[in-house]
Design goal:
With about 120 residues, the protein is an all-alpha fold. About 75% of the residues lie in helices and about 0% in strands. It contains four helices and no strands. Helix 2 runs antiparallel to helix 3 and helix 3 packs antiparallel against helix 4. The protein is elongated.
């Protein structure tokens, strides 16, 4: 939980919210570089797939392209959520506890990707 020294560093944010906010933004800021690295690998694999297998079925090519677009959308929404949460809303977090809209929208591409992955 948050200590008295935490409340000195975060004026205006209730002490009960400091620990959950630290967990939320801490996980996001650690996970973001990992997610973007894996995204880069995905883009490279997609590029190499289209170059090396030009004669594959069109349905497989569409599936690979769709998954890459969904991964791109996911990274864009994560980037937006981090920017809004950390850069724009952090100074006034006590007044505006609402999460950015991109946090809610981001779950849709991930859910679809999980459903499409076993194909």
């Amino acid at each position: 939980m948050a200590s008295d020294s935490d409340s000195d560093l975060t004026p205006g944010i209730p002490t009960s919210l400091v620990a959950p906010l630290q967990d939320l933004f801490g996980c996001a800021l650690v996970g973001f570089p990992i997610a973007t690295t894996v995204y880069g690998i995905t883009v490279l694999q997609t590029f190499l797939y289209y170059r090396r297998y030009p004669n594959d079925r069109i349905s497989l090519k569409i599936l690979v392209g769709t998954l890459c677009v969904m991964d791109t959308l996911t990274i864009a929404l994560i980037t937006h959520a981090l920017y809004v949460g950390v850069v724009l809303h952090l100074p006034r977090m006590a007044e505006d506890i609402n999460l950015p809209w991109s946090v809610a929208v981001r779950t849709t591409p991930q859910s679809s990707r999980v459903l499409a992955a076993p194909l």
